[in-house]
Design goal:
Layout: H1 13-32, H2 36-39, H3 42-55, H4 58-64, H5 77-88, E1 95-99, E2 103-108
Antiparallel strand pairs: 1-2
Amino acid sequence: MHKYWPILSCNDISSCNNKMNSFWADQWEQHGTCSTSVTEDLYGYFLTALELYLKYNVMEVLLQAKVKPSNSNTYPSAVLISAIENAFQFHAKPQLDCKNGDVIKEVRLCFTKNLQVCH
C-alpha cells in the first residue's frame, strides 16, 4: 500500500502512519463499501484497486507521453486526456480533479460496478 497508494503529502512514512491509515479507511468507507458485491471485503477492495492501478497505470502513460510532474512546467489538459485515451483506447474522457484550478490533484478513471471501463 505504501508503494502503490501513497499519501504524497507525507514526506516520512513513519510520521504519517496515522494519516495513512485514516486515508485508507476513508477510501474504504467512501468507495469500497459499495463494491462488496464484486470485491467481497476490505482486502478484496484494496487488492482490486491495486490490480486496476497496475493495469491502468496513468503515471506511466503520462511519463511515456513526456508529461512529467513539475512545479514549473504546465501541460494543457487536452494533452493529458489524449495520452490516457490513446493508451487505454477509452471512449470516455478521464476526469482531472484540480486544486486551485491549475494543479492536478488526481486523475479519475470511471468503472462500472462490474469493473468495466465506463463509456
